[in-house]
Amino acid sequence: MRTWEENIRKVVPYTPGEQPNQPDMIKLNTNENPYPPAPGVERALKEMSADTLRLYPDPTAGILVEAIAEAYHVEKDQVFVGVGSDDVLAMCFLTFFNGKKPILFPDITYSFYDVWAELFRIPYERPALDENFRIRKEDYFRENGGVVFPNPNAPTGVEMPLEDIEEILNHNQDAIVIVDEAYVDFGVQSALPLIDKYDNLLVVQTFSKSRSLAGMRIGYVFGNPVLIKYLNDVKYSFNSYTMNTAAIAAGVAAVRDKEYFEKTCSKIIETREWTKAELKKLGFSFGDSKSNFIFAAHETCPAEELFRALREQHIYVRYFPKGRTHNHLRITIGTREEMEKFLSFLKEYLKNR
User: Fold this and answer.
1) Which tens digits make up the pLDDT trace of 74-126?
2) The whole model's pTM is what?
């Protein structure tokens, strides 16, 4: 090895979901929203003057922060925004997880957590989910350097009750606890009401799922003003202009259209529950997903076989081949029409195999 290679920071990177580009595809692999953004988003982008792009955006993303604070009935100094919740979470890891004690997150969860921990040289431990893919709250009642988990969890879609989250907070008053709520709008009670009670709590959300803006990359976190200030200090030491002008405008328009947001979330929830019932008829089993996806296994047909058969038909789902997830598919909820086509193929394939 050459001498300079000894000083390279080497990590195993996160593997994002495949982004195919087939005209006839049904894309159920990356948990995107199947419906377009709120109508106001398109208007905001059309009305934006191209001349504004020669100027740097507002480094505070002030109008977006204000719109989020207003929509969620919190103060502006309780909100931090970033380039998708991945950016926000990475900033949280960098800012708050700097001790010698290991941080804790589940063994089956969002697979970016261990990537950031490795990248930032943060010690970590991964308590195992139980046999039903549920987080055991008691595993987090011990000394640690911080706690992070999604609710509902990913890729399982399983919800942790708010009272269990509060128990974790009560047992970790000397560590930062991050609740990653990327999928909260599809049927889970948010931990947001707890931020005034626990000054060590951060609640992360995103515009990528329920607000149909995955392509704009907008994430945000709620917390007490002291934590938000620390996050901004790190952001301004890293990159002052993280939010671009178009994303700020689109985000404001999206968050202000509550009626459209609630309508599309309701459609996805309705389709999810219908899809659950249909999958059970075909011999699939899964937890009670409260997200915009279902984490399912078939009683006789291996997940890898189904994954490949679906892919040949340009129907894309997510497959995690390692460990306890090796026989499960994560199936994003698309439109009713997309799910009907998906289920129709499964029915024929399982009948004829």
Assistant:
1) 999 999 999 999 999 999 999 999 999 999 999 999 999 999 999 999 999 99
2) 0.96
CB 34 within 8 A of CB 268: yes
Residue-wise pLDDT for 130-147, tens only, equals 999 999 999 999 999 999
The stretches of the chain forming alpha helices (DSSP H) are 39-47, 62-72, 84-96, 113-119, 162-170, 225-238, 245-256, 258-281, 303-312, 336-352
Structure tokens at 351: 């009948």
Phi, psi of 269 (to 5 degrees): -60, -45
Site of tokens 């008053």: 173
Query: Under a CB-based contact definition with an 8 Å cutoff, are residues 126 and 107 in contact?
Result: yes
Maximum pairwise Cα distance, the chain: 60
User: Average pLDDT, stretch 176-195?
Assistant: 98
CA-CA distance, 291 to 257, in Å (whole number)?
A: 21
On the question of a cis peptide bond just before residue 152, with omega within 30 degrees of 0, the verdict is yes
**Structure confidence by residue, pLDDT tens digits, 242-300:** 899 999 999 999 999 999 999 999 999 999 999 999 999 999 999 999 999 999 999 99
At 216, list the tokens.
């704009």
What is d(CA 291, CA 201) in angstroms, rounded to the nearest whole number?
A: 22
Q: Are 81 and 68 in contact (CB under 8 A)?
A: yes
Instruction: Give 284's contacts (C-beta < 8 A, 6+ positions apart).
Output: 296, 297, 298, 299
Using the 8-state DSSP alphabet, how is residue 77 labeled? G
Pairwise CA distance, residues 59 & 82, whole Å:
11
User: Which amino acid appears at position 334 of this protein?
Assistant: G
Q: What is the predicted pLDDT for the residue at 14?
A: 84
Q: Which two tokens stand for residue 293?
A: 């996806």
Q: Which residues contact 51 (CB under 8 A, 6 or more apart)?
A: none
Closest of 293, 281, 274 to residue 336, by C-alpha: 274
